[in-house]
Amino acid sequence: MNWYVYILICRDGTLYTGITNNLEARLEAHNSGKGAKYTRSRTPVTLGTYFQCPTKSDALKKEAAIKRLTRQKKLELINNQKNTGSCYEQ
Questions:
Q1: Contact residues for 37 (Cβ-Cβ < 8 A; gap 6+)
Q2: Helix (H, G, I), strand (E, B) or coil at 6
Q3: Could you give the 3-state DSSP secondary structure of residue 44?
Q4: 44: cis peptide before it, omega within 30°?
């Protein structure tokens, strides 16, 4: 089972980072108001980019690393990854 770390672009322009093992279902949950509390009032959200990771542990580490980045660096990830990437890229 693969895990994904994803960055969402919210309606208000803010960014949200999370992990899941089913990217499509998680994006649907965010947009239906059943996702994270942060995104509930910021729908619709769009997928900025994601990274595929082999284990949940790797995904959690990648998520933590992304959350430490500045907004500008996160936007660079979104623009440079073209919506996909490896867990080990940065």
A1: none
A2: strand
A3: coil
A4: yes
DSSP secondary structure, 5-71, as one string: EEEEE-TTS-EEEEEES-HHHHHHHHHTT-S-HHHHTS-S-EEEEEEEESSHHHHHHHHHHHHTS-H
Distance from CA of residue 72 to its chain's centroid? 15
Residue 69, pLDDT score:
96
Name residue 62's amino acid: K
Q: What is the pTM (predicted TM-score) of this model?
A: 0.90
Phi then psi for 41, rounded to 5 degrees? -95, 5
pLDDT digits (tens, 9 = 90+) for 55-66: 999 999 999 999
